[in-house]
Amino acid sequence: MITIKYPSNLLSKYVKYYWHLKTDDENLSQRIIPTGEIQLLFHNQKPFKEQLQNNKTIIQPQNLICGQVTNYKDVFCSNETDMTGVVLYPYSANVFFKIPSYELTDYSVDICDINKNFKFIKTQTTDLNSFEERIKIIEDYLLKEIFIKNIEHFSISRNSA
């Protein structure tokens, strides 16, 4: 079952929505199509397998950032699934990761390779059963990141004046 929750007003300019997928279906498959969005995915159980256009199969990292895709790909799971997704607007990658969106195009990358602090979210959310509790921790973290970026920006602005 998929559950969707919308972000707080403070994050609504950066986060489109959150989603949670929990199922016991052993043969779950999904075709991912281009949407123009960037997603953060947190697998709370075994990660999905991705089948790419060249029929190559890879296993997703436990926590990943998926850039905008230009072609479809198929994902599969072979056991119970419990995962949380954060759907970002394309420009949000630069806000949270200091990376232009185009550099993530067609890539699924371990989120901790881009920002080691995201390991904190995984650690804090793994044992939580409530989607709402997971979202609270994610939102608190993202708000903190925006606050830090604003301090850096205004510090640079003041020093360059």
Briefly characterize the structure.
With 161 residues, the protein is of the alpha+beta class. Helix content is 30%, strand content 30%. The N and C termini lie far apart (53 Å).
Strand and helix layout:
Layout: E1 2-5, E2 15-23, E3 29-32, E4 38-43, E5 49-51, E6 57-59, E7 63-66, E8 73-76, E9 81-88, H1 92-97, E10 108-110, H2 111-114, H3 118-125, H4 131-160
Antiparallel strand pairs: 1-2, 2-9, 3-8, 4-7, 4-9, 5-6, 5-8, 7-10
Number of strands: 10
| Largest sheet descriptor | 6 strands, antiparallel
Our count of helices gives 4
The dominant shape is globular
CATH topology title? Jelly Rolls
Word description of this protein:
With 161 residues, the chain is α+β, with helices and mostly antiparallel strands. The protein has a single domain, classed as Sandwich (Jelly Rolls). The protein is 30% helix and 30% strand. The protein has 4 helices and 10 strands. It has helices at 92-97, 111-114, 118-125, 131-160, and strands at 2-5, 15-23, 29-32, 38-43, 49-51, 57-59, 63-66, 73-76, 81-88, 108-110. It has a 6-stranded antiparallel β-sheet with strand order 1-2-9-4-7-10. A hairpin with a 5-residue loop joins strand 5 and strand 6. The longest helix has 30 residues, at 131-160. It is globular, with a radius of gyration of 16 Å. The N and C termini lie far apart (53 Å).
Features of the shown structure:
Jelly Rolls; 4 helices; alpha+beta; four-stranded antiparallel beta sheet; six-stranded antiparallel beta sheet; 30% strand; 161 residues
